[in-house]
């Protein structure tokens, strides 16, 4: 016989873990922007909260690799690696500049499009921001 309280405890625990890990069923994922999409680059300090436009740099990867955001959304890259990284648009529309461990930079993406970007230090690191 199953015990309902165990199932409830499991659901509550999973929900709490997902909330603290920044996971969830959001439709937003990593995406790229167009040349005219970046309007502002701002230092976000060491912000670690994941939001619709949050991308973590860890293990020499952008996570998520593709993100979709609405036009006008501010996308924030946070470097969790020991090595420095950048998020540099292939078309030159945005560049976070060098991000040391723990640093974050944000870019406001105002125009729809698909924007591929890479790390200037590690060109094999590639990702995309899709702006709707």
Characterise this structure.
This protein has 132 residues and is mostly beta strands. It has one domain: Cupredoxins -  blue copper proteins (Immunoglobulin-like, Sandwich). It is 14% helix and 36% strand. It contains 1 helix and 9 strands; from the N terminus they run αβββββββββ. The chain has one helix at 4-21; strands spanning 38-45, 54-58, 61-63, 66-69, 73-79, 88-89, 104-109, 113-118, 126-131. The strands form 2 sheets. A 5-stranded mixed sheet has the order 1-7-5-2-3, with no helix packed on it. It has a 4-stranded mixed sheet with strand order 4-9-8-6, with no helix packed on it. Strand 2 (54-58) and strand 3 form a beta hairpin. The longest helix has 18 residues, at 4-21. The protein is globular, with a radius of gyration of 17 Å. The relative contact order is 0.26. Residues 1-50 have low confidence and may be disordered.
In a nutshell, what does this entry contain?
The protein is mainly β. It has a single domain (29-131), classed as Cupredoxins -  blue copper proteins (Immunoglobulin-like, Sandwich), CATH 2.60.40.420.
């Amino acid at each position: 016989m199953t015990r309902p309280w165990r199932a409830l405890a499991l659901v509550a625990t999973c929900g709490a873990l997902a909330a603290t890990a920044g996971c969830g069923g959001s439709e937003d994922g990593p995406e790229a922007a167009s040349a005219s999409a970046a309007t502002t680059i701002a230092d976000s300090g060491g912000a670690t909260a994941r939001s619709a436009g949050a991308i973590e740099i860890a293990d020499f990867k952008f996570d998520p690799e593709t993100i979709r955001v609405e036009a006008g959304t501010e996308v924030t890259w946070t470097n969790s690696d020991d090595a420095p990284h950048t998020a540099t648009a292939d078309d030159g529309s945005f560049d976070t500049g060098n991000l040391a461990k723990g640093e974050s930079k944000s870019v406001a993406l105002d125009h729809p499009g698909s924007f591929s970007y890479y790390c200037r230090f590690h060109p094999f690191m590639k990702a995309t921001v899709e702006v709707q």
